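Notes to self after the Tuesday call (sharing in case useful).
The group wants a holo model before anyone commits to mutagenesis around the pocket. I volunteered. Ligand is zinc ion. Logging inputs and output together so the record is complete.
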Amino acid sequence: MKRGALGLAAAAMAAALWGAPAAERAGSADRVFVGGRIWTGDPARPAAEALAVRGPTVLAVGTSAEMRALGGEGTDVVDLHGRLVVPGFVDGHLHLLGGGFALEQLRLDDDFTFAAVAARVRKWAATHPRKPWVTGEGWAYAAFPGGLPTRAQLDALVRDRPAFLGSYDGHTAWANTVALRLAGITRETKDPPGGAIVRDDAGEPTGTLKEEAMSLVERLVPKPTPLEKEQAWTRAVAQAAGWGLTGVQQAGIDEDDLAVLARVLDAQPRLRVYAALHMEREPTPEALARQDALRRRYSSGLLRVASIKGYVDGVVEAHTAAMFEPYPGGGTGLPNYSQGELDRTVAAYDKAGWQVLLHAIGDRGIDMALTAFERAARANGTSGRRHRVEHVEVPRTADLPRFRADGVIASTQAMFPYPNQNHLGVYVPTLGPERAKRALAFKAIDDAGAVQAFGSDWPVFTAEVVRGIACAVTRTTVDGVPAGGWEPSQRLTVEAALRHFTRDAAYAVQAEASTGVLAPGLAADLVVLSPDILRVPPERIHETKVLLTVLGGRDTYRAARF
Ligand SMILES: [Zn+2]
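Result:
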């Protein structure tokens, strides 16, 4: 019999209530996986053919005969038939709630022509006639001539109600005329601080809203009900388990959502969530006390709060990532802080014992983040805080050694170099040739000795880990484009990509003492994959399927065919 999640839970409960016989507790495994290939991620014992689990932890790793010998009566013996087992995947940066909504929203992620976008918007509007708004996300700049959409294009698709659609990176939105009118946006409306209402030559709003200008319309969109939010969290947690994830860094959450997520994880204990609170600018003692109370409330179990997330800059496509040299057409981006403000903010959190995650994409933004971390360490005399730069897209080559020297983690996203039309048609030309060469340079980051943790930034890209591994290894689309890969010198081996999604990401979420590798005494968080991702040709990696996900010894996902 294969023991499922409930079986183990019941066994654990029985043991807690009545106590298990001492001999059995000392001797036998609850479950042994035999006849496979175990990639442990543990340098002390990198490979094995079998693994034994007792309760929530790995009991032993070794040969099939050795592991079978650890079994007793009632031990569940799983024959892997040669399949690969790896440590449970950890996503170093994602947004579960947005991902949960994305799973059932209008999504435009794979539409790289206007015709494809138009067809999908029209279809969604037709199949959701009672939705008061047409909302969705994921459009690529490359789908629009000139790189930005217009309200006239959207009016032709949705005329009867407001429509408001976000770009795939969440930094730009596309509104139709009804939505602009509801928001009172006219040629007289001033740009809000930190945002821009894009206008045509005559000064009329075109329907594109950048950064903070998005909120002029966004605040009118009906908010999801508490029930809809809870359902979205639940969907996201279930889907994450289906992708082989056992741990994730939630990159930003507020107090209300923490309470909902805690309830969801109580009811469905399928994922370890390491959640970052939102950074406050030069936080007051009251703000720090409030955030510390949340840290103490969520300090054990599946949901933990130990980090703070802030934004130093924006994104490349919107020209808001902070750069040393101008974008084509001018401008060097929008840092959200002066260096002084950032230094004081980071130092305050560092002093209060927080791990700080700073979104920084442009070379100037990354330098600002590293500088703030260095100054905080000097001012407070702290070390080993494991602060992180999120995204690290266009660092100066000379800044890479600072990650290792400062003990700062490079938190990168494996799918960000995915060379689709948006990437090759907008992202790369926006950077220009010199910057493009050093963009998303995963191999250079590894070679500089930094700890590099992979994530997805779901729903920006899918959090399906095998897709991320495929992209980091091939730097092509799933169709093999461009041949040989985009900037192929930055391709990684499958093992390096696996390490970044397991051990290194576990280190980045401060959980490496209990997860991230498969070794005796550590959590039994593991994934069974097929085919063997270490042996298939690179162009077939993305076809790899997750057959089983185990979290703390309990199944959180099992494919029908396993
Ligand atoms: Zn993010």
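Two things stood out.
The chain is about 35% helix and 25% strand.
The CA atoms of residues 49 and 98 lie 39 Å apart.
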